[in-house]
Amino acid sequence: MNAADYVIIGVLVISLVLGTIRGFMREAIGLLAWLGGLWLAWRYAHLVTPALGGLLADEPLRTWVARAIILLSVMLFAWIFAGILSYFIHQSGLSVTVDRLLGGLFGLLRGAALVALVTLVAQVVQLHQMNWWKKSQLLPYAVTVADWISGFAESAVDPDDSSVKTRSKREA
């Protein structure tokens, strides 16, 4: 095992521990908040930019600030909602243990997705040709997950495009 393998293990363990501590409900709400917040930010930034008109002269900067405001607002709302919901779940007698175990599983999956996304970026910048990459024992698994995510994302963007090909034949 080399440094890349230890980094992968570290990311997975940290994400697992954080998921276990936070529990499934907080993790799920957090993920939905990020996805929903990003979608809302890109979809509705044009409604917030007029309110920033006098403060920022640069149009692209106004758009990015509007997106940030929307995303942060959604994240704040989700954080408050998750705290309230988590409190009621724990007070209601529902199994805290099950919530924590599912949170740990969720965290592990999130860690694997993060490793896969970093692997995709690393492949784009040609790190897969480096000697340490080739000697890694865990990166081939990360490449497999990254290729699956890449194929899924490409088909989601344009499912009718027959020229879309997965990168599964790319060397690890």
Task: Explain the overall architecture.
The protein has 172 residues and is mostly helical. The protein has one domain. The chain contains six helices and no strands. The chain has helices at 3-22, 24-48, 59-91, 96-124, 131-135, 139-157. The radius of gyration is 20 Å and the shape is flat.
| Poorly predicted residue ranges | 161-172
Please provide the count of β strands. Answer: 0
Integer count of domains:
1
Category from helices, strands and their pairing: mainly alpha
Q: Approximately how much beta-strand content do the residues carry?
A: under 5%
How would a textbook summarize the main sheet? Answer: none
Number of H- or I-type helical stretches: 6
Q: How far apart are the first and last residues' alpha carbons, in Å?
A: 15 Å
The percent range for helix content is over 70%
- The rough form would be described as flat
Order of helices and strands: HHHHHH
Backbone CA Rg: 20 Å
Quote the average pLDDT.
Answer: 84
Task: Describe the secondary-structure layout.
Elements: H1 3-22, H2 24-48, H3 59-91, H4 96-124, H5 131-135, H6 139-157
Helix pairs in contact: 1-4, 2-3, 2-4, 4-6
Give short descriptive properties of this protein.
single chain; 172 residues; mainly alpha; 6 helices; 76% helix; 0% strand
A few lines on this structure:
The protein has 172 residues and is mostly helical.
